[in-house]
From TrEMBL:
UniProt-recorded name of the protein: DUF6089 domain-containing protein
SUPFAM superfamilies named among the record's database cross-references: OMPA-like
Domain of life of the native organism: Bacteria
Stretch forming the signal peptide: none
Coiled coil: none
UniProt xrefs under InterPro entries: DUF6089 (IPR045743), OMP/PagP_B-barrel (IPR011250)
Protein species of origin: Flavobacterium haoranii
Domain DUF6089: 19-242
Amino acid sequence: MVKKSILLYLQTILKMRYLFIYILVFFSLFEAKAQINELGVFLGGVNYIGDVGPTDYISPNEPAIGLVYKWNRSPRHAWRFSYQYGKLSSKDIDSDVPGRELRGYSFKNHVHDFSAGLEFNFFDFDLHESGFVMTPYIFGGVSYFIYNEIYIPVDESEIDYRDSAFAIPMVVGFKARLYDSLILGLEVGARYTFTDNLDGSNPKNDNFENLRFGNLNSNDWYVFTGFTITYTFGQNPCFCAE
């Protein structure tokens, strides 16, 4: 079991290496003078949706933090890259579902989320203009996250090994420029994951096959809710037809 955990951990490191190489190559294709950048932080909370505990979609119960980078291509869209970290936890006793309350399971997990994709503004968010500018926005792309493969032997979760998977990010938000170089945003970002074991309900390890429970045909979700604060820098781009 120890050898298997070490092997999976090394595989995770290799996957992350390829992801960062891809991002570096992507940025090298563009000239810095033709862009304006945003760099900042995410502060908020995170909650999980699955086979343990409440089924509320937006109900952050653990703190979450992160980093955000945006490369603005026009007043309507920007390439966005982010890293977010949060603890996932849930308890059946907090659920309104009678069967879950009686079962009494609980779990704890952690996610390191790396996302990349396109952010689209519903209104022009022209960084050439001075003064107050605001717009709602959406973001979509791909997420890659690291988490713990867990199982529930009695009523609380135990860690088996570290694993990773992909997810589909779906983010909606609202942002406004407070000062010339400072932008404040409020957003809710759901992740539909390609795993059903953030909560220990469907461990991959066949040694724990008898511990599987819940809907084994439905994958888990986690949702980040919070604020982004970004600082703009770099030469303003020319938002005009070339």
